Amino acid sequence: MSSQRNVRSTDTTDAQTTGATPRFEQPLSDDQIWMMLQTAANSARIMPIVKGDWKSSTRSYETREDAARALVFDLSFYANYRFSQVRRLFKQTAMRDVFTKAELDDIVEEAYFEQNGRSYPTFA
After folding, report:
1. What is the dihedral of CA 8, 13, 14, 18, to 10 degrees?
2. First and final CA of the chain: distance in angstroms?
3. DSSP states along 10-62
4. How much is the pTM?
5. pLDDT tens column, 54-101
6. Of 23, 75, 24, which Cα lies nearest the Cα of 46?
7. Is 13 exposed, middle or buried (0-12, 13-18, 19+ CB in 10 A)?
8. Burial class of residue 117, CB neighbours in 10 A (0-12, 13-18, 19+)
């Protein structure tokens, strides 16, 4: 099984693009994603949110919704933007105790639309 990869030309004037490159050939399991989150370089930012303690994250979030949205973005990255898996993983976090089910669904849906075209949003 071969995978196409976009290789950046050393010639920066070359504007050739060949479409999105899949990050993983096989979808990661929920357990694999949790392991990756726990060992990620930014785990000190992510894991407090996973545990529902968004205020102790190494990044200052103005609201719990901002923290939850950031977690959805991280889950989306590792789940290769499969939002059924993102929704399931997000509901396994302690943030489920911070929000109602409807609020959780809204946060995931808003993040889905904010990630239009699978882009990874950044915060100012």
Report:
1. 70
2. 40
3. S-TT------PPPS-SSPPPHHHHHHHHHHSTTHHHHHHHHTT-GGGSSS--S
4. 0.70
5. 899 999 899 999 999 899 889 988 988 888 898 899 999 999 898 888
6. 75
7. exposed
8. exposed
